[in-house]
Amino acid sequence: MRLDRAQHLVRLTTVALLLCFLGTPLRSEVSNASDKFNVLILGDSLALCGFGKRLDERFRSDPQVNATYTYMACGTNPLSWLKQKPYTSIKAPCGFWSIESAGAGKPPRELQDTYGMERKNPPKPHLVPKLEDLLEKVQPDILVVQTGSNLFGLFPDAKTVRPSQHASALKGYLLPFKTKAVSAPSTLRRIYWVNPPTSGRVSKEVQDFLFEQTRKQLTPASTVIDSRTLVAYPYRRMDPDKEHFLGEEMIQWADKVFDIIEQDMSAQALASLPPLSEQGEGALVAQVAQPVETAARAEAVQPEIPARAEAVVPAEVPARAQAVTTARFVAPAAPAEPPEQEPLLLKATLAFKSEPIPLNELLPYQESLVAYVYNVDKVVKGRYDEKQILVMHPAHIGLKPQKLKHKIGKRYKLRLDRMEGTLWETAKARDESGQINLQPYIRVEDRKQHPGIRKP
Question: Is the pTM of this model over 0.85?
Answer without folding.
Answer: no
